Amino acid sequence: MSSVYGPGEQNIDASAAKIFSITEHQNIEFRAEFINALNHTILDAPSNGGIDIANPDGGTIGQINTSEGARNIQFALKYNF
Q1: Is residue 55 assigned to a domain?
Q2: Using one digit for the tens of pLDDT, what is the confidence trace for 14-40?
Q3: 25-34, 42-51, 55-64 — which one is most confidently predicted on average?
Q4: Which domain, by its residues, includes 71?
Q5: How far apart are CA 20 and CA 15, in angstroms?
Q6: Which residues have CB under 8 Å from 6's CB, separation 6+?
Q7: CB 36: neighbour CB atoms within 10 A?
Q8: Number of domains into which the chain is organized
Q9: Which of 28, 46, 69, 81 is the most buried (most CB within 10 A)?
């Protein structure tokens, strides 16, 4: 467990679906899913910099050098019969 915490996270996921009828027993479903829809940057936790007692000023202590992935969009088309 780490005692270093990163910045807050804002993440909004959204989805939309529409069903198109073909016959009484057949339809097509179209779906769109948006992960991190607003494309906010999701920063990882600050690094501990590989703390070295002999050289406490060196390294990358407290720096945030990585982030999570950006917005993802996924489409699906399903035929029901």
Answers
A1: no
A2: 999 999 999 999 999 999 999 988 888
A3: 25-34
A4: 14-50+60-80
A5: 17
A6: 43, 44, 45, 46, 64
A7: 20
A8: 1
A9: 46
